[in-house]
Every structure is written in structure tokens, then in C-alpha cells.
Amino acid sequence: MKRVVITGMGVISPLGNSVSALMGSLAAGTSAVQYMEGWTAYKGLRSLVAAPAQPVDEKKIPRQNRRSMGRLAVFAVLAAEQAVADAGMSSEELTGGRTGCVVGSTMGSAGSINETFEQMLPARDLSNLTSMKFFQCVSHTAAMNISQYMGICGTVLATSAACASGLQAVGTGFDLIRAGRQDCVLCGGAEELHPTVTGSFDVLYATSTKFNESPKKTPRPFDRDRDGLVCGEGGGILILEDYDRAVARGAKIYAEILGYNTCASGVHVSQSDAQAMVRCLRDVLTDSHLQAGEVDYISAHATATLHGDIEEADAVRGIFGDRVPVSSLKGYMGHTLGASGAIELIAALKMMEQNIIYPTLNLENIDPACAGIQHVLTPLHKPVNTIIKNSFAFGGINAALACRKI
Length: 406
Fold this sequence. Notes:
The protein is α/β, with parallel strands linked by helices. The protein has two domains: 4-248, 3-Layer(aba) Sandwich (Peroxisomal Thiolase, Chain A, domain 1), CATH 3.40.47.10; 259-404, Peroxisomal Thiolase, Chain A, domain 1. The chain is built from 14 helices and 15 strands. A hairpin with a 3-residue loop joins strand 14 (386-393) and strand 15. Helix 3 packs across helix 7, helix 8 (165-178) packs across helix 14 (340-354) and helix 11 packs across helix 12. It is globular and about 60 Å long. The two termini are 18 Å apart.
């Protein structure tokens, strides 16, 4: 099995549209959550807070290419351009057939899907739909548009597992390279905000509804007063490479991926399950040839739902006890859904590079049911050599990835 390393990263996020901007906002303790003025037009929507991405210049993408892109595909392409530049990859390397693309999202462009039905209904008239609308709506729109825009002709896949999509994409790219099927893979996830996206969680009573008047106080992962998740948006792309190839071309290496696991709980469609999370974490340790005590930081999924945070804390406590620092980044930028695993992994890798762990924002009173793990409440300066990133999605889909400094 080949060794796999990360050599490039790019981000579009609520905290900034570059890796440096993202990290600067985390260091400043910035919350990107805001009250969404226009959302009151949607009847029955109780959660009126969200974390929009910072404005992007989508016209950097030529119109001919942009016609097939909804908002999330634009995020993905712009993040991919950053990652490719960061990795110092040439166009010949992208188009040579040994480079692939695996990028996930919960679904296609929510805005484009909504526009499609508004144009078609109630008259059921399809004649108003543009020919490119379909390509904005498909579930593989991010992977498809990146590969078309960059001329990638290796393996192209789209992971679609809600909040685990981005991390599953990185894990899939890892598997493709270590098995020798590709030399390099662009991996990650993208998602876009829309009232219907928040609404899908709202009808499940999974959103934050008590802080519409004080948006900076929510979400509150692991906190006693948490009341649900806040949706965000953005895109995160990482460049994965065969270690020998990266060394030969003199690439900067952020980290080596040691192991990956994804599994299902088979228990409940919307409720997290600690036993399945434990199995996922144990298996990623086994795949990585790591002992629990060798992990220096866990980047938690922790969305601030009442049930999910308890189950995740229970799983982490069962394996790591209170020996490993744990924090969630969703208090800063909300839950970017299919992009979250990739964006939060990028942030965790930079924290590892800088030997600092940023705390869980808005964690003021630890829920007793989430106690017994080492919550990070203030910036923690310590050697960080090995990290684990978790993503746990609706449908009982679990994913975990382990990385180490080289």
C-alpha cells in the first residue's frame, strides 16, 4: 500500500475565502453566524440564523464554464483553484489521467433546485427551464464541474452522505491512491445555504431556534444551553498525493494520512449512535496503527444538537477518556454540511502545523451528559503531531480520518 500525503488546500467559508483568512478568524474567535433577514418570507421556518460564506467573485470563472454551476459548484471550483496553486500542480499533471477528483455534497445546488420548481410549478410548464439547470441540480455537480473546468480525466466520484460527504471524499481519495489507482486526487466537499436547507433540519427539530435575536451565541456545541445546529456554507478542497511522487517533485507536505474508516449504524435514520461511533473510531485507530494515547487532538463533529453531542461525547469518552483535547469548530461558522469534513480538516491540519488548538466557541457551561472528555475552552498551545477528524451524518453514516505530521 502506498503512503498518502496532503500537499495543497483551498477554502471558501463563512470565516474567509482562503486558508489564511479562515485561520485568522478562528484565532480572533470570530462568529460568522447572522440573522437572515429575507428568511421570514418562508412560512413555518423557525430558525432564522445561518453562516453565509464570504462574498466570492464568481466572474473569475468564465461564463461558458459557470453556466453549469450553481452556488456550491462555484465554491468548489474556487477552492480547487486555491488548492492546486497551493500544491504547485501543473495543468499537465491535472490532465494526464493519473489525477482524479472526489468531491461530495448533500445534494445539488439548493438554490437551483428551488428555482427549477418555482419556474415549473404550478403550471407544470417545463419550457421555462434552461438547458444548464440540470447540471446545477445533480448530486455530483461539484465533482463534475471541477473535473470539467480543470480537464481532469482520471477517476471522478461524488460522495453524497449528508454531513459526512466531505470527509468520505477525502477517505475515498486516500483509498484510491494507497491502492495505486491514482497518483493524485482533488478531494473535499461543498454546500450552499438556502432557507429550504435549514428548513429540512427545522422540520426535524434539529435547528437552533432560541437565538434568532442573538445569533453570535449559537450554535453551542456540548453546551448545556445548546438548542440545535446552524447551517453554513462553503467549499473545502485538499490535494492528496502519493508520498514518493510528492517528495520527488519537492512539494510541501502538510501531513500524511494514516488511516480512514466509514461505517453505518443501522439503528436510526436521524439519531446518532454512540456504539457505531465507537466502532468507527476504533477501526480508524486500527487502520492507522495508532494507540488512543498517541492522538493529540480530535476535531469533533459536534453540531450542537441535543442528542448528537451526547452520543459523540460518549463515544470519545469510551475510547480516549479525558486524555485528548477535543473541540468543535461549528460555533464559529455553523455546520457547512457536506463541506464541513473538508473545511474542518483543513483547519485542524493548520492547527497541527502551528501547534495550537482553538476552543469550542460558545461552550460556556459543559452539559453534564457531555462531560468526561477534555473540552478545549481557551486556545491551547501544545505539540500536535497526530489528529483525528470526525464526521457523523444523518442516516447513521460515520466517518473518521487520522493524520500525522511528517
